Amino acid sequence: MKEGKTTDMNRREEIYLQGRCPCRECSGTRLDEKLVKWILDFEQKTGLKINITSGARCESYNREVGGYWNSPHLTDVNGVGHAIDFRIKGLKPIEIAFKVEEVALKFGGLELKRLGIYKYHVHGDLERPNPSKYWYTGNDGIPIYSKNINNLKDFLIQMKKEGRLSYDENVVFNRIIGNNFMADISKKENGKYLGL
Known about the structure:
With 196 residues, the chain is α/β, with parallel strands linked by helices. It contains 7 helices and 8 strands. The protein has one domain. The strands form 2 sheets. The protein has a 6-stranded mixed beta sheet with strand order 2-4-6-5-7-8. It has a two-stranded parallel ribbon with strand order 1-3. A hairpin with a 4-residue loop joins strand 5 and strand 6.
């Protein structure tokens, strides 16, 4: 087997392990294969590694972590979860959300249908946008939905106007919209910028 295929298979296994419900009662839960494909595709196109902080959840674990009763993290009858919460080392959640959007616009293909921006992570899933495509959860923990705004930049401009972004988020957002954010946040490990 070639090295590339071995690495891809190892990464796929790592994604499956990160995406399983972590409670002791569950066994055999996994992420939707479309999400696994999206993760592998995103990582291949950007050179950035996604760290899944939450994937598939059983009802008991979902309640324990305060998840919504109809969360796409919940496993279906086949033990499959349809959402991930994730981080990318060195990037703030707003930067991650913009990166996800840019990759979808530049390359097309499978894309996340909904993005939620939290203080320390981003939520992504393949569900129909309901109640909206985007949401932002500030320090108070209450989600604010984009409603009819279907553009991430416009939604965050609205959040900024309403004074909902923290100081740090304002700095990051201003940098993103004021610069070519691809050149700014797409760093390779050797310190050189990676442009897509």
